[in-house]
Amino acid sequence: MTARITLVQGDITGQSADAIVNAANSSLLGGGGVDGAIHRRGGPEILAECRALRASRYGRGLPTGQAVATTAGRLDARWVIHTVGPRYLPEEDRSELLASCYRESLRVADELGARTVAFPAVSAGIYGWPLDDAARIAVETVRAAPTSVEEVRFVLFDERAYEAFAARLR
């Protein structure tokens, strides 16, 4: 089954979904951008579970392209799925790592039984991935991924990001 893809312009922390995907850094301990916003709005429960993950399975941090779930704390969701996007390097094709973020997040969502998943534009912020290419990889990967998720919602922070994703859906 393929998920229905919808687009929303706005703040991902205000979304109501079974799972909200966090464009995390490998430390899992919060950061800037989407990561910082999710930790701030979600509250200390998310950070507590991230610390427990670091103390057990991910002592060196979550590897790029992988995904892991925690509680959603005070967010209007059941889970936060943390995924570490690659930094954009013009001299190295890291597209497969970015695609893996979406595939792995959907795999985790399926394991959890999530039906609605809200994604940010992974790696398109401070990690420098060109927006049009980030949108292409995100949409193509989600369309091709086998999943039980019914709705994938891309929550885009501004009009430029929204338009880049909308162009890929046309």
Automatic annotation (TrEMBL):
InterPro entries: Macro_dom (IPR002589), Macro_dom-like (IPR043472). Residues 1-170 form the Macro domain. It holds the Pfam family Macro. This is O-acetyl-ADP-ribose deacetylase (Regulator of RNase III).
